[in-house]
Structures are given as C-alpha cells and as structure tokens.
Amino acid sequence: MTLPVRVHSTGGLRMVSPGGEGGPVRTERLGMAQTAAASLSSALPQPRTWSDMRRILLITVVTLLRVPLAQAQVAPQPGDLILLGGVLWDGTSDESRANPGVLVRNGTILLVGDVDPAGGDAEVIRLGDDAFIMPGLFDLHAHYAVDLLAEGRVDEYTVNPVLFLANGVTSTFPAGEVDPAEARRGRARVASGEIPGPRIYSSGPYWGSARPGWRHEAMTPDSVRKEATYWALRGVRGFKAKGIRPDQLQALIEVGHEHGITVTGHLDSGVRNSVNPRDAILMGIDRVEHFMGGDAFLGTQSAYASLEAFDLDDATTVARLERQARLFVEQGAYFDATLTAYDYWAGKEAQVYDYWEDERGFLTPFARAEVEQRLPRDPSDQFERIHYMKRRTIKLFYDAGGGDNISLGTDHPSWGEWWSGFGVHRELHAFVLAGIPNAAALRFGTINSARAFGVDARLGTIEAGKYADLLIVRGDPLTTITDTRNAIHVIRSGRVYDPAALFDSVRGRMGPRSEAEADWWKGNLRLGR
C-alpha cells in the first residue's frame, strides 16, 4: 500500500519506523521490572510498574530532559518537524493557548516553545489561526472485528487501521481479539509500516465465556495462570475478561500484574457466580468496561436489569453509585463507559450517529450490497433504556469526583454501516451531551486513557520527551466537541499524514469482493481462524 504522507517543505519528511510491540504495560500501583532508560527509548511506551524509587528516577530523567530545552532555543536539524501557528491544547489543563512552537525529532517531541525554523532544513508546517493542535486520541476499547456477512466477526487489519489513524486515533487497545493469530499478523503489518495505522496494544483472546470453546469446568485458576503466562510471554499488552468467574479473574489479575500487564473486564452484578466490578476493583483490576458496578447493581439480577431500572431520584441508589465512584478513585481503577456502544444496538441518536464521511463507501461494492440488504437493523428497546441511563450515570460518576478515572473506549464491532475508527468522535460527543465539560471529555480520550494503560510517561499530552502523536483539526473542540472530526493533519511517531489521502487510499476496499471471497471469509469463520 502506498503511504499517503503530506510533505510541507523542501526539507522533505524523514521516515520514522513505527517500531515493534514492546513489552507489557502496567499502572503504577503494581510492582515492576523496567529501567527508566528503557522506558524513554523503546519504540512503544513501556511498562510503568516501577517501585517508588524507579518512578522517581524516571521523573528525574524526564525533568532533566525538559528543563534545558525550556530555557534555551534549540536549533533545528535536518529531518526535524516544526509546527508553527494555530492554537495548542497540550492536555495538561483545561485551557488552550497560542502555539509557541513544537519541535519534533526522531519521532519524539523535543521542545514546546520558541522555535526558529531558519537554517535547519527542517520540515515546517505553518498552521492557520483556525488550526487546533491536540494529543492523538487513544481508544481503550477498540475493535478491529467486522461482521459483514451476518455469520460472525472477522478481525480486519487492512482497512480498519487506516480508518483509525485518519480519524486521529494514534493508539488503540483491541479489548478482546476474535482471532489472536490474525491480530498478531495485522499488528506486524502496521508496525512495519506496510499499512498506516495507530499503535496497537495487543489483548490476546477473551478470558471467559465470550471466548468460543471456553469451558468453565476446565478453566481452573491454575489453568488460567498457565495460559495467561503463555500469552504474556508472547507479548500481549493487556488482558480482557468477559463472562469470567471470581476465582478465574483473581488468577488472571495476578498473572497480569506479575508480567506488568493491565487487566480489564466486561463484568456483571455478581449474579450466577459472575463478578461485580466492586469486587474486581478490590482484587486489583485496572479498568472496568460498561458498568461501574457496586451495591446499586443487585446480585440477584443481571447488570443490564439493574441499570435499566435505576431510579436516580432515589437517594439510596444515588448514594450507592457515588460510593462506587469513590472506590474507583481510592483504588486507582478506571472506568471505560462506552456510552455509544449501547446506542449502536438501539435507536442510534441522530446527532451522534450522523455521517461526516461516507462510511459505507469504504466497503467493496459486493460487501456494501450484502450489508445494505440487512438494513435497517431492529433496535433493542432494552439497550435504548440502558443507553440513556448510562449517560446519566457517567455524569453522576464525574460529579462524584471520578473525572480523572474515566477513560475512553468505544466498543464498536461493526456490521458495516459505521466503522470503529469514527467511534471516538461519537464517544466524545456523547460525553458532552451527558453534561461533561469539553476539556474533561478530551482528557478522557488522551491523558486519562494513557494513564489507564500505564503509558502516560510517553503518551497522552504534548510535552517534551513524549512521542509525537498529535491530531490537528480545524476549529476549537474546547468549544465545539464535534470539531475533533475536522482533521487536517495526523502525526504518529513524528510522521505526518494527510487524513483525506488516508481515506482515499482505502475507499471500496473493506470486505469480500465476490461470492468466492465471501466463501473464504465464511470458511475462516467455520475454522475459527
């Protein structure tokens, strides 16, 4: 595939290798095995499970890197990238400011400050007053799986990575892989530069009944430990549990933390030997998907049943939910609310599920015909109720002091009418519609997600020493959140991409092109590949 890269000066664009998979990731509250030097030099952000002394060392190294740069102007070199003009939101506060200049070298931000582009033969991008620079977006519940033939999901790593990157999503965690072997091959193609795409932090298979062939009676805690160790040694960056028993989850968390791997879960209420997020947090889980859990989720019925029946005018229910939000904060756990995922299966609120690109145009003509003959899908009345209740409860979570513990995940497995890569913008919009300030919503999708995955030493904000993953849009998302959709440049590891060219490169390429190729897709499904 030809890589659509926009070049802005006679200095040209230095090609930066995206790098490999790197090691596992873990948040600060686990213990660790990595040096600060490795964390500062690896191609992907490395584990952050240091002891307090090692974390102090990292902070010292990064501080020493930044202080001289802030005090003296740095001379650009050939191959550097300089951003001048526009407005900068660096992700460290609620406010934007006039861009003082951003200097990128070797894929890393070297300086945010006064940059003189003269004499260095650097690539210079001069932005207009309406340009808004922000950190690249991070989807912590991304899916690369698609179901285009109504016969099951297939992991698709040819078009999906391009769509994520064109939307300014520079990091993703696929929360459960349908086909870990295919996902591994897809990640390798992106990492090598063959296919443009975001950083893809591997999850490996689902842990629990969501995995085809999972047998609870066979998966003892020891079995979980052995298999989890196998995947950890193969470079998996995080575990995702769904449909798991308490003893199995405890074993998974223990192995994950031994290997510096974060663990997240689509959990339940505790009914039928499931796990309530309250108990999972006390076990040490890092993130919770979909439902915040707690005493408001009764152990006598499913989380779905509890959520759709909440009475938020009832003081007892509100107090229980606020108590659960405080537990997240106290234990350092994160909540991936996935607001728009439930609307995807429900009524699809028009102002959120609108089109600003012809998303079906990325399908092959054959696949588009297959998809459109099944549309429109019947909405789920239950998910419609849950969707609006989730919107109210995420605002309650935020107001209870949980704003720093909300991360962004979309959970958009696609049937072909909307694509996961566009889902981050819909999720940001849904947060704001819930009453959350724009700046907070932007933090959910940048620094909060980086912290939740333990990679905030290198990602999540625009600061010296961090990877040059940036999104430049036209407009002001701090005022109008949907302006995040107006991408004019995407920068990943210091490499500049033209979003329009990325979109054009994959139009008409998603899915089978003929009945014969459709049979191949179905065959892969039957073989469980």
Question: What does this molecule look like?
Answer:
By secondary structure, the protein is of the alpha/beta class. It has a domain at 136-460 and 501-524: TIM Barrel (Alpha-Beta Barrel), CATH 3.20.20.140. The protein contains 16 helices and 21 strands. It has helices at 36-41, 52-71, 160-166, 180-191, 221-233, 246-258, 277-283, 303-309, 315-331, 339-344, 365-372, 381-402, 420-433, 438-452, 499-506, 515-527, and strands at 81-84, 87-88, 97-98, 102-105, 108-112, 123-126, 131-135, 137-142, 145-146, 154-155, 169-174, 199-200, 206-207, 238-242, 262-266, 287-289, 334-336, 406-407, 470-474, 487-492, 495-497. The strands form 5 sheets. It has a 6-stranded mixed sheet with strand order 3-2-7-19-20-21. Strands 13-14-15-16-17-18 form a 6-stranded parallel sheet. α5 links the parallel β13 (206-207) and β14. α5 (221-233) runs parallel beside α6 (246-258), α9 (315-331) packs across α12 (381-402) and α13 packs across α14 (438-452). The longest helix has 22 residues, at 381-402. The model is unreliable at 1-43 and 46-71 (pLDDT under 50).
